[in-house]
UniProtKB/TrEMBL annotation:
This is CO(2)-response secreted protease-like. One of its GO terms (biological process) is proteolysis. The lineage of its organism: Eukaryota, Viridiplantae, Streptophyta, Embryophyta, Tracheophyta. The active site is at D149 (charge relay system), H229 (charge relay system), S560 (charge relay system). Pfam families: fn3_6 (PF17766), Inhibitor_I9 (PF05922), Peptidase_S8 (PF00082). Residues 142-617 form the Peptidase S8/S53 domain. GO terms for molecular function: serine-type endopeptidase activity. GO terms for cellular component: extracellular region. It comes from Capsicum annuum. Keywords: Hydrolase, Protease, Serine protease, Signal. SUPFAM superfamilies: Subtilisin-like (SSF52743). Belongs to the peptidase S8 family.
């Protein structure tokens, strides 16, 4: 008989008290801290040896001599930015934060890991993608994507280098070897591989104090992916063409990345389930030094633990990447559908939300009364006819009467294993946060024959249950199932294998899990920026070495999958427009985004409501349209420096952070009352206003750059806004002539008659030939 673990509330309380008391007692015990010291002293970066010696000296000044073994650095940052990671007590961290060369000191954070049909769905079909644009003529410009993730499985066919030229001479990276990874695993496609351990050190440090301890690298380090997440994201971004790709017969087609001829460099800074902030910071520094063009990071903090930008490893690294001309694309998080959950929201990051594509994985369930219901899920549990089994509701078979609610949700330890065995069990998803995977494992442990999940929020992401029968339903179908169970003496059910439904409508739909704006750190920047496919995405996966029938591909969901779609699209655009800056490409992607679905209706969410910019940003990614946007809104480093001023950083911090303009001075003609309001004025491709009082009119300036084929062009504006919010554009027309590529305009917002709360709309510019240039806005009227 299966044994299901049971934890009483009393035990949970005792464990909580033990944990909290342990944390309190160890408040002054050493733990990893990141010390951020701003920009390097010179534009080419500082010497690794000199910087590490400086870090050792700083540590020696605050760590007691009797604890000299702690005078060592775990990671040293010295190329695009300065700093290090070391073991410190809270008191030592506080002392260091006052050091004249230190911007911030913060605990080393733990971050979370946040494709056949998807690229066709975005409009980038094989024909239009490569025949419309003579890619061979631009292939001399080799775009390099740095993927910071869980590593890579180099044998995947998506990383084959058969049809790609020699490695660019500007590449300065390395292919690190490990116990199961050799230099021969790198090739002309996978051109670089690094991995990071807690005690990772620069091997060329030769002169250090005798008191310092430099740990050796653990012998089991490797760039090889043991999780699958990094392999999956890398192949979505830049995987080579792989014909006949499939996941056990599903989603068959040609697998490829967004930029199949781009190079990949992998930076393994994450392991199973988590990533260390200090390692990510090191990986970004290395990637910039190695020569990547774009950095793709499908990782982030939970919105619950968001901190200031100068205490966020990804925000720090991405800022200095922007200074060096390297674009950083990040996932927005998987904590939707609530508001204020989006992460990676710094304006110099391109933040990506997730949406569905026009493919659905349907599972039919037939009840004993011959009622057939259509659910969702992915399972490969039988070859041949499906069988009928007794049907039970978890709430009716608890381990103990006091656990009825827990049993309703099939929580561990809540079900009677004897009554679970041999049945298909119906579980709800309306209680404590217990994943679908956990519910499945609970039932498998009890020898159940299948799982029917009822989720009133109707999750958009299909769950892959492997060989265990599974089907998921929403509120209406769930009510039918429960009514049947309650009205039948001998309820029965059959779960059939999955069917793939293509050309599914409506699509795209914002994924239920996709984190939403506004951004909690500043609502004056609209986040997320863009939406891309992130539900049921087929891409490369690490094989299961214990299963001879293991697939080389997998189907997964998350903003982790949406992020590399945008990274790949950016690489594709960069290969056609090599002189465009990261922010120009970002603007092109945002202002040409699709705002309607394949049913020719506005994009929606899983509640069938119109999706707002806080859910989809500017809209759905459209790589082909982004190649010819007509106008772009380029956000310069000066805009980002002004952002830091308006956000409230002091002169000392700015002096250390800003590298290109050490003499930079914050604008002085600003009223303190409305200082953060000025963030809305930086030249961003969207507009967000955190607070517009009804008795005020707020004006926002933007500068457009003509990147169209004709130097002579006139654009006329149109406004689509909510009733009551008065929006005016001045001038309503902007003209470009030869030699003048930039034009300014002002947008005024009058909320006197507007509804309170957020008001959304869009300003469009049209020259008669290009597709319309869209600039979305979000204005919170109080």
């Amino acid at each position: 008989m299966a044994f299901l673990f049971h934890f009483s509330p009393t035990i949970f309380s005792i464990l909580f008290l033990m944990i909290t008391s342990c944390i309190a007692s160890n408040d002054q015990s050493p733990k990893p801290y990141v010390v951020y010291m701003g920009s390097p002293l010179n534009s080419s970066g500082d010497s690794a040896e000199i910087e590490e010696l400086l870090h050792i000296r700083i540590l020696s000044s605050i760590i007691p001599s009797e604890e000299s073994e702690r005078i060592s650095v775990r990671h040293s940052y010295h190329h695009a930015y300065r700093g290090f990671c070391a073991l410190l007590t809270k008191q030592e961290a506080t002392l260091l934060s006052g050091h004249e060369e230190v911007v911030s000191v913060f605990p080393d954070p733990i971050l979370e890991l946040h494709t056949t049909r998807s690229w066709d769905f975005l409009g980038a079909t094989v024909g239009s993608y490569y025949s419309t644009y003579n890619h061979s003529s631009s292939s001399n410009y080799d775009v390099i994507i740095g993927v910071i993730d869980t590593g890579i499985w180099p044998e995947s066919p998506g990383f084959d280098d058969q049809h790609i030229g020699e490695v660019p001479s500007r590449w300065k990276g390395v292919c690190m070897e490990g116990v199961d990874f050799h230099k021969s695993n790198c090739n002309r496609k996978l051109i670089g591989a690094r991995f990071y351990n807690i005690d990772d050190q620069d091997s060329d440090i030769t002169e250090i104090p005798k008191s310092a301890k430099i740990p050796s690298r653990p012998p089991n380090g490797t760039p090889r992916d043991k999780v699958g997440h990094g392999t999956h994201t890398a192949s979505i971004a830049a995987g080579a063409f792989v014909p006949n790709a499939t996941y056990h017969g599903l989603a068959s087609g040609i697998a490829r990345g967004g930029s199949p001829f781009a190079r990949i460099a992998t930076y393994k800074a994450c392991s199973e389930g988590y990533c260390q902030g200090s390692a990510i910071l090191k990986a970004i520094d290395d990637a910039i030094k190695d020569g990547v063009d774009i950095i793709s990071i499908s990782v982030g903090k939970s919105f619950v633990f968001q901190t200031d930008f100068k205490d966020d490893p990804i925000a720090i690294g991405a800022f200095h990447a922007a200074e060096r001309g390297v674009g950083v694309v990040c996932s927005g998080g998987n904590e939707g559908p609530d508001s204020y959950t989006v992460t990676n929201s710094a304006p110099w990051i391109l933040t990506v939300a997730a949406s569905t594509i026009d493919r659905n994985f349907q599972v039919n369930v037939v009840l004993g009364n011959n009622v057939s219901l259509k659910g969702t899920g992915i399972s490969f549990y039988t070859i041949g006819r499906s069988k009928t089994y007794p049907l039970a509701f978890g709430e009716n078979i608890p381990f103990h009467p006091s656990l009825t609610f827990q049993a309703r949700n099939c929580m561990p330890g809540s079900l009677d294993a004897k009554r679970v065995a041999g049945k298909i069990v119906v579980c709800m998803n309306d209680g404590w946060s217990v994943s679908r995977e956990i519910k499945k494992l609970v039932l498998q442990d009890g020898n159940a024959k299948g799982l029917i999940l009822i989720d009133e929020k109707e999750k958009s992401s299909p769950f892959d249950s492997g060989n265990f029968p599974f089907a998921e339903f929403g509120k209406l179908a769930g009510a039918q199932i429960l009514q049947y169970i309650n009205s039948s003496r001998n309820p029965l059910a059959t779960i059939f294998p999955v069917n793939e439904i293509r050309r599914f409508k409506p699509a795209p739909v914002v994924a239920d899990f996709s984190s939403r704006g506004p951004a909690s750190l500043t609502e004056n920047i609209l986040k997320p920026d863009i939406t891309a496919p992130g539900v049921g995405i087929l891409s490369a996966m690490i094989p299961n070495t214990d299963d001879k029938k293991s697939s080389l591909f997998g189907i997964t969901s998350g903003t982790s999958m949406a992020c590399p779609h945008v990274s790949g699209a950016m690489a594709f655009i960069k290969s056609i427009h090599p002189t465009w800056s990261f922010s120009m490409i970002k603007s092109a992607i945002m202002t040409t985004a699709t705002i309607s679905n394949n049913a020719r209706k506005p994009l929606s969410n899983t509640s069938n409501l119109h999706a707002s910019p806080h859910e989809i940003g500017a809209g759905e990614l459209n790589p082909i349209k982004a190649l010819n946007p007509g106008l772009v809104f380029e956000t310069t480093m000066n805009d980002y420096y002004n952002f830091l001023c308006y956000y409230g950083y002091n002169e000392k911090e700015l002096r250390l952070i800003v590298s290109n303009k050490k003499n930079f001075i914050c604008p002085t003609n600003t009223r303190t009352t409305y200082k953060k309001e000025l963030i809305s004025h930086i030249n961003y491709p969207s507009i967000s206003i955190e607070k517009l009082e009804q008795n005020r009119i707020l004006r926002v300036k933007r500068v457009a750059t003509n990147v169209g084929n004709s130097p002579n062009a006139t654009y006329t504006s149109s406004i689509f806004g909510p009733p009551g919010l008065i929006v005016r554009v001045s001038p309503s027309k902007i003209a470009f002539v030869k030699g003048i590529k930039k034009a300014s305009f002002e947008v005024s917002f009058d909320g006197n008659k507007a509804s309170k709360g957020y008001n959304f709309g869009v300003i469009t510019w049209f020259d008669g030939s290009h597709d319309k240039v869209h600039m979305v806005f979000a204005v919170n009227v109080e």
